[in-house]
Specification:
The chain is an alpha+beta fold. It has a single domain, classed as Phosphorylase Kinase, domain 1, CATH 3.30.200. It contains 2 helices and 5 strands; from the N terminus they run βββααββ. The protein has a 5-stranded antiparallel beta sheet, covered by helices on one side. A hairpin with a 3-residue loop joins strand 1 and strand 2. The longest helix has 15 residues.
Length: 94
Amino acid sequence: MVVTSTSHHKTLEQLGQGGMGVTYKAEDTKLDRPVALKFLGSSFLDAPEAQARFLLEAKAAAARGARELQFYPAALPICAVGCRVARYAIDMAV
């Protein structure tokens, strides 16, 4: 499933894919800013344990403060997590 937009995000290109999901470069159309959207893979739609791990990943990343993030160049600040177009998603600032 290729995600092209959500309620206020427009996907621009796929950045990567892993075991549990796909990350896209996107634009937040409400705030006019670039974001990265990570979606839980469609094969995990009916897997509560995978959804719980995905939300735990978002919480762990969100717990890092700005000071800590400077030491992890691949880590992005978490802006939101929730369900977008019937799939769990993590919204990250870039």
